[in-house]
């Protein structure tokens, strides 16, 4: 069984890798000039998620009952990163991609 802290670590590592993959190809984008702003914001949202249960599981953001944790600008940025990187995760980090789906 995976602890809540370990689950959070994996989620944060996944976000970091997704931003890294995105910024490899989008070097001139505003987001990639300072990716730490988006990462810190996303990490903060993960830490404060009130829908995480005692096992550390939480609903995917797309299926979240309130769906308003992210500011619209940040939501657009993270969606762009996930849309681009999500399909490439199996190429660059297959184990992390699989963990993302099963945890």
Architecture overview:
Helix 1 packs antiparallel against helix 3 (35-47), helix 1 crosses helix 4 (72-86) and helix 1 (4-25) crosses helix 6 (94-102). The protein has helices spanning 4-25, 30-33, 35-47, 72-86, 89-92, 94-102. The chain contains six helices and no strands. It has one domain (4-48, 59-102). The protein is mainly α and 103 residues long. The protein is globular, with a radius of gyration of 13 Å.
Largest sheet, if any?
Answer: none
Number of domains: 1
Order of helices and strands: HHHHHH
Beta-strand residue fraction = under 5%
Poorly predicted segments:
none
Termini gap: 10 Å
Fraction of helical residues = 55-70%
Structural class: mainly alpha
Q: If you compute it from the alpha carbons, what radius of gyration comes out, rounded to the nearest whole angstrom?
A: 13 Å
Shape: globular
Mean pLDDT, to the nearest integer, reads: 86
Counted by DSSP, the helix tally is: 6
Kindly state the number of beta strands: 0
SSE inventory with pairings:
Blueprint: H1 4-25, H2 30-33, H3 35-47, H4 72-86, H5 89-92, H6 94-102
In short:
With 103 residues, the protein is mainly α.
List the keywords.
single chain; 103 residues; mainly alpha; 65% helix; globular
């Amino acid at each position: 069984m995976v602890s809540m802290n370990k689950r959070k670590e994996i989620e944060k590592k996944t976000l970091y890798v997704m931003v890294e993959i995105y910024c490899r190809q989008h070097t001139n984008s505003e987001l990639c000039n300072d990716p730490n702003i988006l990462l810190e914001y996303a990490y903060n949202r993960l830490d404060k998620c009130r829908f995480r249960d005692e096992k550390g599981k939480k609903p995917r953001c797309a299926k979240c009952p309130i769906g308003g944790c992210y500011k619209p600008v940040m939501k657009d940025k993270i969606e762009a990163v996930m849309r681009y990187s999500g399909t490439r995760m199996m190429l660059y980090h297959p184990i992390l991609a699989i963990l993302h789906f099963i945890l």
